[in-house]
Design a protein that fits this description.
By secondary structure, the protein is mainly β. It folds into 2 domains: 155 residues, Jelly Rolls, CATH 2.60.120; 133 residues, Sandwich (Jelly Rolls). The strands form 5 sheets. Strands 11, 12, 14, 17, 19 and 20 form a 6-stranded antiparallel β-sheet that branches. The termini are far apart.
């Protein structure tokens, strides 16, 4: 007897726990089933855009207004983009821009579709909507949907009676911000779902070397798969600094390691023709006032080359030498790029000598560096750098 009572109590406890568990999950599982207007997909009423419409139900007359009325359809060439059905408006919810309170009869209410709870919906020429009323408060109700700021259409998108739950699919044009107005003549709840939109700017032709042609206005977005644009799609020199806006290509547009030396040719970053005559000293100086400033778009190397001249006032029997350097300061003389030695046997007099020097430096991405062409004299001769008042500097950037 005691064992039977114990088993009965255990069964009652298990049943009680199971009932609690069911009570916890039942509302979530039944939410859609209990909703008088569940979210589901519907057929887009493209027939509303046709010049002739065969009406099977005279009361659903929204399509009758779309082909003759002003602002009834997108005015420019457009294409339809489908989206996963999403609920934009439900006035049964708490008060808010896309919730309650219910619509008030005799007034209109505006809804900016791109600003609603459905992510990724852009400003568009028109939207594919399913408009449903729930529990209207009077008979002979009607609802109109139209672009914000436009005149109301002469006919309704939906007709209904008191206490009905009734819906209708409609293609509703919007204003320039993606806003539409809803007007109803009786108090009622509104549920508005979306499953697509019409985007203007239709590409009708793509010709290599010519570009895009077609009707419509506004921006055109082309999706390109990874690796879809290569050397066979771009002619040599097709993309230059004049065709890319300043700042248009940054880290958000370039994947890590997507730009390599194989994809970027060496670039002549600066070509300087400047200089002034000044004498080389026995200490490291920027004789000639020669320099070049380079900003590196990515990490790489800068190859600096200078072609200039020197004037030497030589005394026979005197040994002289002048060394030339590239450095990152006007007193940097670390590794000589070239040198000029004057033999003692050279007769006394003034002489011009050409000088050319090349050196390479590593630079960090985004860095701006000024490179100086410096010199240092050994001996007693007077040696003037860039005595002719001319120097040509070329700085070539090579990405890593």
């Amino acid at each position: 007897m005691t064992q039977r009572v114990g088993r009965l109590l255990s069964a009652l406890v298990l049943l009680s726990c199971a009932s609690v568990a069911l009570a916890q999950v039942e509302p979530a599982a039944r939410r859609d089933a209990d909703d008088a207007v569940p979210l589901k997909d519907w057929a887009v009423p493209f027939e509303q855009l046709r010049a002739k419409v065969m009406e099977t139900e005279p009361r659903l007359i929204a399509e009758r207004s779309l082909h003759p009325a002003v602002n009834a359809v997108p005015s420019a060439a457009s294409h339809f983009i489908t989206v996963v059905p999403c609920r934009v408006v439900d006035t049964r919810n708490a008060n808010g821009p896309y919730g309650g309170p219910k619509l008030v009869g005799g007034t209109s209410r505006s809804f900016v579709i791109p600003g609603g709870p459905c992510a990724g919906i852009p400003v568009a020429a028109a939207y594919s909507l399913n408009l449903t009323v729930n529990l209207p408060e009077a008979n002979d109700g009607f609802l109109k949907a139209y672009p914000t700021g436009s005149a109301q259409p002469l006919v309704a998108s939906l007709n209904f009676n008191a206490n009905e739950t009734k819906g209708n699919a409609a293609i509703v044009p919007a204003d320039g911000s993606g806003s539409i107005d809803i007007f109803t003549n009786v108090n009622t709840h509104l549920i508005m779902d979306i499953n697509g939109y019409f985007a203007e700017g239709v590409v009708t032709n793509l010709t290599a070397g010519t570009g895009l042609t077609g009707g419509g206005t506004g921006n055109v977005t082309l999706g390109i798969a990874n690796g879809g644009v290569g050397t066979t799609q771009l002619a040599t020199g097709a993309v230059t600094s004049s065709t890319i806006a300043n700042g248009a290509v940054g880290t958000a547009q370039l994947a890590d390691a997507s730009v390599t030396s194989a994809k970027l040719a060496a670039k002549v970053f600066a070509n300087v023709t400047t200089g002034a005559q000044s004498n080389a000293a026995t200490t490291c100086t920027n004789a000639g006032n020669l320099s070049s400033t380079v900003t590196a778009p990515v990490a790489g190397k800068v190859v600096l080359n200078v072609v200039t001249s020197t004037f030497i006032n030589h005394t026979n029997g005197v040994q002289n030498e002048v060394d030339f350097y590239w450095g990152t300061s006007p007193t940097a003389c670390t590794t000589a790029a070239t040198f000029l030695a004057i033999p003692t046997t050279l007769p006394t007099g003034g002489y011009f000598f050409p000088v050319g020097a090349t050196q390479m430096f590593s630079v960090a991405a985004g860095s701006t560096t000024t490179f100086y062409f410096n010199s240092q004299r050994f001996g007693t001769d007077t040696i003037a750098v860039s005595a002719a008042g001319f120097a040509a500097i070329t700085a070539t950037f090579i990405p890593d």
